[in-house]
From TrEMBL:
Enzyme category, top tier: lyase
Matching HAMAP family: PEPcase_type1 (MF_00595)
Catalytic function, reaction form: oxaloacetate + phosphate = phosphoenolpyruvate + hydrogencarbonate
Highest taxon of the lineage: Bacteria
Protein name as it appears in the record: Phosphoenolpyruvate carboxylase
A single GO molecular function term of this UniProt record: phosphoenolpyruvate carboxylase activity
InterPro entries for this protein: PEP_COase, PEP_COase_bac/pln-type, PEP_COase_Lys_AS, PEPCASE_His_AS, Pyrv/PenolPyrv_kinase-like_dom
Protein family per UniProt: Belongs to the PEPCase type 1 family.
Cofactor(s) required, per the database record: Mg(2+)
Active site, per annotation: H145, K575
Originating species: Janthinobacterium rivuli
């Protein structure tokens, strides 16, 4: 047995044990007949997958159709829970292998901080690191979306099981301890089995806020400060210049949850205020806990060790009068800091009790200054080691999180801003119809109003509910800046940005509430356009050039350090133009934006609106960042972490730490070691770009002809997928569509992608590629194949594109997709559309294998192959069950049990596929 097989056997052992314990729980709860029925289905599914046994497939289908509603629900729950347990085992196995790699002293792995820093030093660019960190900014941004199907209670159960598995890897147990661990695992799985998978009520925005903040408890609050410390230590070990140096705050974790209003009417000014207060309470509670622990550790007696005068003064100001600590200045000082912070919590959160005579902190900088006094005293008195423990982490946490925890972004659709501005102009200038003006007229009018000291709003006027709500949101931001600091809400994102007037409209609204000052041309938030559709991506660079040419707008940028952020929409561009064209137009837009920003000497920061699935821009973050075109990173990058990806990446502290490291490592390498990796090799670059343009044109036509140009496709989509049932799930606070319609144009990208994933077709992640390659080879019979292979070998962008598509195809199953197609009532429509999809699927598989040289999918990724091999026997039956349940439901059996069964199957399939939404 080879080494990798030995290592993977540990994973197989974990999966077998977890499966056995789940089986015990099922048998004890449901009885032997139910267990045997579920086990029979499992064995048939394994036999079919392992041996491609058609007889097993037929038996599996018969067995599933024979199940009663109750038996179907039991099976669905069982297979769903197994997928959750498999996820835990895989995550723990990745941790196990990473730790084994580090313990063995093996060379740093690609994507690790040590690998990235080592490459920089080896390349002789160590001097550039200091400049890099001074200007760097790396920020994953958590967003709430309805692909996060798990309840928090389920996540808690999973984390408890993960801790027990981790304990076995880290501790050499006695036989008794091993037995106790297995018993605890069994109890954890019984608890999981008895915990409800589905929510009984729809999530509120504040529920989503609480869910998002739970990852700070598990991971972010502790692991992010540790990352800084680890990196500082790593640099100091390589270069004495970094000894005692403290890095700037180059990494923060942001959030949209509670600030994203695009299509979500439930995000109001009061919700924004509640979100910010909840975030403040979370971080202050963390600081208070850390201060208590720190005080218990720093029991240093003054008679045994001196302290600095500032520290002594801090201790004297403390209200701590305990005779037991009279000669313990550090404890007394920390007691005083704790008391002031308690007062701060009362002011900011309305919780706790403020001691008499204690002055709350006005800002996080004051808290940090007091902690610095403690740190400097320890260092100056020979106790550097004590300063590098909990105190070091707490000081870094205060620097990074402040009193607001996470920078909260605002987002709203440009159409909403347009209507509000139109209403304000109509009220101030009766007869003016803003919406009837062309773009140049709008720009002229907006600039004149921005230059004017007057306000359009009047306290005596009556405005629509929409206008009142939006203005209240901006007023709440101004309040937040005073209360928590300007870093609490630093960004305003404009969805569907398509013009310069879209930017100026937001500037005008900011002026109305005092967040933009006309006389000084200062603005307190970043105005960020989000270019989403294919047309918007193509127009984006010209829009920014036009804006930069306006003296007023350029003045606003001067107040923001001459920096402009631009957000790129992966999800909607994919829904608009398909997988290949979306990726290519995003890449081209970045190249053109880099050129425009360089021309106007404006610093560019790109915000990548990536989803969890490949159909929404997902895929490995490290490879995605390295595949950006030259100049697109520049030490700064933001990217969204959405839906179930947040749980997968950040629920486990070690996995979370690794994912944070990956983002930093990739940003360092892309900025300081671009070499030729970020664009096609010069020798073939022009040919590669031309080939990609040709491929994209064909793929776009194929995709749009199917999705938007085929009569009845909308009906096919709604009948052959679970989109209608997804829309009814209690898995998010916002509706599935932006408008009350079934049109694909109005549908959000998230349920669009999730629906195709559920039926195992994954259409948004590959459709059009096969046609594009076929047409390219026909047009270039002599060298077409060689050009495409060269692009795959030499161009990271194309390599990453095909790697992601490979993963999507590996998780697809055209035979299962065919079962869903049978749900379409119109036989002619069904056969016409599915025949095209099946043909394109076959062509795409052939094209991928031709270019990559693979004989089978995921041949270059044995870890993914293994994961798929372990999972499919448990996902396949869920798909068959889901089809059967949908048939029954749509034929009229629409009781609560049927609806529950469908929702359980959606949950289970999503858990099994992981990055499905």
């Amino acid at each position: 047995m080879q080494m990798n097989e030995v290592k993977d056997e540990l994973l197989s052992s974990d999966i077998r044990q977890l499966g056995r314990l789940l089986g015990d729980a099922i048998r004890n709860h449901l009885g032997d007949p139910a267990f045997e029925r579920i086990e029979h289905v499992r064995q048939l599914a394994i036999r079919f997958r392992r041996d491609n046994d058609e007889a097993a497939r037929a038996q599996l289908s018969d067995a599933l159709q024979a199940l009663s509603q109750e038996e179907t629900t039991q099976l669905t729950r069982a297979f769903s829970y197994f997928s959750l347990l498999a996820n835990i085992a895989e995550d723990q196995h990745h941790i196990r292998r990473t730790r084994a790699h580090l313990i063995a002293g093996s060379p740093p792995r690609q994507g690790s901080l040590s690998h990235a820093v080592g490459n920089v030093f080896d390349a002789g660019k160590a001097d550039a690191l200091e400049t890099f960190f001074e200007d760097a900014f790396v920020s994953p941004v958590f967003t709430a979306h309805p692909t996060e199907v798990q309840r928090k209670s389920i996540q808690n159960c999973q984390m408890a099981i993960a801790r027990l598995l981790s304990e076995r890897d880290r501790v050499q147990m006695t036989p008794e301890e091993a037995e106790q661990n297995e018993e605890a695992l069994g109890r954890g799985i019984v608890t999981l089995w008895q915990t409800r998978l589905l929510r009984t009520s729809k999530l509120s925005v504040m529920d989503e806020v609480a869910n998002g903040l739970s990852f700070y408890d598990h991971t972010i609050l502790r692991e992010l400060p540790k990352l800084y410390s680890s990196l500082e230590t790593m640099l100091a070990q390589r270069d004495a210049r970094w000894e005692d140096a403290e890095l700037p705050n180059f990494m923060k974790v942001g959030s949209w949850i509670g600030g994203d209003r695009d299509g979500n009417p439930f995000v109001t000014a009061d919700i924004l205020r509640s979100t910010l207060q909840t975030q403040a309470d979370k971080v202050l509670d963390f600081y208070l806990g850390e201060l208590r622990k720190l005080a218990s550790q720093l029991s240093l007696a003054q008679i045994l060790n001196a302290c600095s005068e500032p520290l002594r003064a801090l201790a004297e100001r403390s209200a701590d009068a305990s005779p037991h600590r009279v000669d313990e200045p550090y404890r007394r000082a920390l007691h005083g800091i704790h008391a002031r912070l308690e007062g701060t919590r009362v002011v900011l959160c309305g919780k706790g009790k403020q001691a008499d005579g204690v002055q709350p902190y006005a800002a996080a900088a004051e808290l940090l200054a007091d902690l610095d006094v403690v740190q400097h005293s320890l260092v100056s008195n020979g106790l550097r080691a004590l300063a590098r423990g909990r105190l070091r982490q707490l000081r870094r946490a205060v620097k990074v999180f402040g009193f607001s925890l996470a920078p909260l972004d605002l987002r709203q659709n440009s159409d909403v801003h347009e209507r509000i501005v139109g209403e304000l102009f109509a009220g101030a200038q009766p007869g003016l119809v803003y919406l009837d003006l062309d773009e140049e007229q709008r720009i002229s009018l907006l600039l004149a109003e921005l230059e004017s000291p007057r306000l359009l709003t009047s306290p005596y006027a009556q405005y629509s509910e929409e206008t009142t709500s939006e203005l209240d949101i901006f007023r709440a931001v101004r309040e937040a800046h005073v209360k928590y600091g300007k870093e609490s809400v630093p960004n305003c994102i404009i969805s569907k940005a398509a013009s310069v007037s879209d930017l100026l409209e937001v500037a005008l609204l900011l002026k109305e509430v005092g967040l933009l000052r006309q006389d000084s041309r200062e603005v307190d938030v970043n105005i960020i356009p989000l270019f989403e559709t294919i047309d918007d991506l193509r127009a984006g660079p010209a829009i920014m050039a036009r804006a930069f040419g306006l003296p007023f707008y350029r003045g606003l940028l001067e107040s923001r350090a001459d920096q402009q952020e631009v957000m790129l929409g992966y999800s909607d561009s994919n829904k608009d133009g398909g997988f290949l064209t979306s990726g290519w137009e995003l890449y081209k837009a970045e190249i053109e934006l880099v050129t425009v920003f360089k021309q106007y000497q404006i610093k560019l920061r790109l915000f990548h609106g990536r989803g969890g699935s490949v159909g929404r821009g997902g895929g490995p973050s490290y490879e995605a960042i390295l595949a950006q075109p030259a100049g697109a990173v520049q030490g700064q990058i933001r990217l969204t972490e959405q839906g179930e990806v947040i749980t997968a990446k950040y629920a486990n502290p070690e996995v979370g730490r690794r994912n944070l490291e990956v983002l930093v490592a990739a940003t360092i390498q892309s900025t300081l070691l671009p070499q030729a990796q970020l664009q096609p090799k010069a020798s073939a670059g022009a040919g590669h770009l031309a080939a990609m343009e040709e491929l994209s044109g064909t793929a776009l036509n194929a995709y749009r002809d199917l999705v938007y140009g085929t009569d009845g496709f909308e009906q096919y989509f709604w009948e052959s997928t679970v989109i209608a049932e997804i829309a009814a799930l209690n898995i998010g606070s916002r509706p599935a569509s932006r408008k009350k319609s079934t049109s694909i144009e109005d549908l959000r990208a998230i349920p669009w992608v999730l629906s195709w994933a559920q039926c195992r077709l994954m259409l948004p992640g590959w459709f059009g590629f096969g046609s594009a390659v076929q047409a390219y080879l026909a047009a270039h019979p002599a060298d077409g194949a060689d050009v495409l292979r060269g692009m795959y070998t030499d161009w990271p962008f194309f390599t990453s594109l095909l790697s992601n598509m490979d993963m999507v195809l590996a998780k697809s199953d055209i035979a299962i997709a065919g079962k869903y197609a049978e749900l379409v009532k119109d036989k002619v429509l069904r056969e016409a559309i599915f025949t095209r999809i099946r043909a394109e699927y076959a062509a795409t598989l052939d094209a991928l294998k031709l270019i990559t040289g693979q004989e089978e999918l995921q041949q270059a990724n044995p870890l993914m192959q293994r994961s798929i091999r372990n999972r499919f026997p448990y996902i396949d039956p869920l798909n068959h069950v889901q089809v059967e349940l949908l048939k029954r439901f749509r034929e009229g059996k629409q009781d609560a049990a049927a609806r529950t069964g469908i929702h359980l199957s959606i949950n289970g399939i999503a858990a099994g596929l992981r990055n499905s939404g």
